Amino acid sequence: MPKRHALQTRDHHRVKLPLVYLLSTGRSGSTLLDVLLGAQPECWTLGEFQLLDIGVGRQLPCGCRDPIGQCDFWEPILERVRRSIRFPLGHFRSGRHPNGKVVRWSLLPSILTGGPLPTQQAAADAYAVSNLRALEEAKEAAEEHQDEVAWLIDASKDPYRLLWLQASGHFDIRVIHLIRRPEGFVANMMRSADVRGAAAAIKYAGRWLVDNLIGLALVWRMFWPEAVKRVRYEDLASDPERTLGEICSWLGVSFDTDRTKATRYVVNHGIAGNQPRWEALPVTFEENWRATMPPLQQRLISLMTAPLKSLWASDRAEAAAWNPNAVHARRRALPPWMTRSSSGS
Ligand SMILES: [Zn+2]
User: Fold this and answer.
1) Which of 50, 191, 205, 288 could form a disulfide with 156 if both were Cys (CB 3.0 to 4.6 A apart)?
2) In the chain, where does DSSP find H-type helix?
3) What domains sit in the chain, N to C, each tagged with a CATH number?
């Protein structure tokens, strides 16, 4: 393809754009990881970058709380960014699938073959180049706000976006594959969809399984092992200092412990996500499912996801679940007559 060839020739001497990509199912703590990592001195988060266009159109709040496109970070560059976009950044979040799609049958073969099929190549190229131009503008702007920007962070989560970016060869991508214990993911999904019962638990456990299998296949096929780090939500939330320290050392950047104590240590200009992006919140380890989910459902989810148990079961996660603070939290949840007797007063 002459067009592709021309592009490669022109970009031959280009330094690849450094990008940390957060890959995960939804509701697994990606915003928490995004804002904590983005607050580190040499990192800069853009949040769910694929939602930039959509966010501007809907006047969604930026991480700084002003509408995206009207804040002091995005406003000065937005026109240039939008002019450089030839292919919608929100491609994987548009149309009938505003929340993204778990299984895209047309793209699964390209995960296994390690790159877009010939019929998808032109779209994948246009998508990657549009992202490159936009991210270059964002990096330049970030460097005016912060001394050093070694890594931009993209918390888009979507595996198919990652596939097209990586296949282009324009980026130096490090992937953090964030995985939450399936019971926690299922409980969180059921709560947000306001559904109950074993059928819903099975549905979301299946989604966890498929999502993570696709993520695993993608990173296995398209990345060197050194470029991928698996992080458990349970480790992140129970010990953010240690987890962020390990991530920064892997990325080769400086690490500031103070910036792991709460979210929003620095103002961020990230797109989409949830509360930790907009509010300074202490990092809390949320495992309500242990108390609220019926034991049968827990057993069911555990059985369904057993083939990938090595992804989520760790000594550290188990230890954190049984640490004195967690036990204390459970005691506080007991009925008043029990806490009175146990306090011995
Ligand atoms: Zn902003």
Assistant:
1) 50
2) 2-10, 30-38, 52-57, 75-84, 108-113, 121-145, 159-168, 182-193, 198-222, 233-238, 240-251, 289-292, 295-304, 309-312, 315-321, 324-332, 336-343
3) 11-313 (3.40.50.300)
As to burial, measured by CB atoms within 10 angstroms (0-12 exposed, 13-18 middle, 19+ buried), residue 144 is exposed
Backbone angles phi, psi at 291, to 5 degrees: -95, -30
Pseudo-torsion of CA 300, 301, 306, 310, nearest 10°?
A: -150
66-115 residue pLDDT tens = 999 899 999 999 999 888 888 989 889 887 788 888 889 899 999 989 89
- Single-letter code of the amino acid located at 189: M
CA of residue 74 to ligand 1 center, whole Å: 6
The pTM (predicted TM-score) of the whole model is 0.86
The amino acid present at 166, given as its one-letter code, is Q
**How far does residue 75's CA lie from ligand 1's centre (Å)?**
8
Q: 186: exposed, middle or buried (C-beta count within 10 Å: 0-12, 13-18, 19+)? A: buried
Buried b (16+ CB within 10 A) or exposed e, 252-269: ebebeeebbebbbbeebb
Give the residue carrying structure tokens 């200092």.
Answer: 241
pLDDT digits (tens, 9 = 90+) for 217-256: 999 999 999 999 999 999 999 999 999 999 999 999 999 9
C-alpha 142 to ligand 1 mean position (Å): 11
- Cα–Cα distance measured from residue 85 to residue 2, given in angstroms and rounded to the nearest whole number: 21
Single-letter residue type at 164: W
